[in-house]
Amino acid sequence: MAYNHGVRILENPTSLTAPILGTAAFQVVVGVSPVNLAEDPYKATNEVKLAYSFAEASAAVGYSNNLKDYTLNQSISATFKKFAVAPIALINVLDPKKHKDAIPKKSYQVDALQATVDIEGILLDTLVIESGETTLQADTDYVTSFDDNGYAVITLLEDGAGKDATSLSVSGDKIDPSKVTSNDIVGGYNVSTGKESGLELVRQVYPLFGMTPGLITAPGYSKDPVVASVMAAKCLKINGIFTCECIVDLDSTADGATKYMDVKTVKEKSGFISEHMSVVWPKVRIGDEVYYFSAIYSALIAYVDASNDDVPNLSASNKPIPITGLCLDDATDSEIVVDQEQANLVNSFGVSTAINFNGFRSWGNNSAAYPGTTDPKDRWFCCRRFFSWWGNSFILSYFQKVDDPANTRLIESICDAENIRGNSYAAQGKCAGARITFNQDENPITDILNGKIQFHQYLAPYTPAEDILNVLEFDPTMLEEALGGGE
Question: Which run of H or of E encompasses 302?
Answer without folding.
Answer: helix 293-306
